[in-house]
Amino acid sequence: MKPEELVSLALQARENAYAPYSNFAVGAALLSADGEVFTGCNVENASYGLSMCAERVALFKAVCRGKRSFAAVAVAAGTGDYCRPCGACRQVLAEFGGHTRVYMANRHGAYSEMTVAELLPEAFDL
């Protein structure tokens, strides 16, 4: 799958975000190694610590379906800046391998690209 297609799916997933507190809607599209795509959006809660980021929603959906290897993830927000994964999402993505490509997109579909390992060079590991 081309990066632009994954970014487009992330932008579509963003439309379902529940972000009444931050008004910062985010969408993610995660491509498993075998070609299946899982989407997610951020879901906020009045108790902020219970909120969940789009990347982790997509990843947890994939893991629930038995996926453990991922080729790429696209993250998109409604801003002019590229949407970068937060530290928690970087660490959770790193659990499944630093090789995963991360496409960080803006509302126009433009994106920058890095690997999880580049975004989190010294991830926690046991």
Structure description:
- With 126 residues, this protein is α+β, with helices and mostly antiparallel strands.
- Helices cover 28% and strands 24% of the residues.
- The chain contains four helices and five strands, in the order H-E-E-H-E-H-E-E-H.
- The protein has helices at residues 3-14, 54-64, 87-94, 116-119; strands at residues 26-32, 37-41, 70-77, 101-105, 111-115.
- A five-stranded mixed beta sheet has the order 2-1-3-4-5.
- A hairpin with a 4-residue loop joins strand 1 (26-32) and strand 2 (37-41).
- It is globular and about 35 Å long.
- The model has no long low-confidence stretch (mean pLDDT 97).
Summary tags:
126 residues; alpha+beta; 5-stranded mixed beta sheet
Oligomer, anyone?
A: single chain
Helix content: 25-40%
Query: Which strand order spans the largest sheet, edge to edge or round the barrel?
Result: 2-1-3-4-5
Average residue-wise pLDDT: 97
Shape: globular
**Low confidence ranges:** none
How much of the polypeptide forms β-strand, as a percent range?
Answer: 15-25%
Summarize the biggest pleated sheet: 5 strands, mixed
Element-level helix/strand string: HEEHEHEEH
Structural class by helix and strand composition: alpha+beta
Alpha-carbon distance between the two ends? 32 Å
Radius of gyration: 13 Å
What's the total count of β strands?
Answer: 5
**Number of helices, where a helix is a run of at least 4 consecutive DSSP H or I residues:** 4
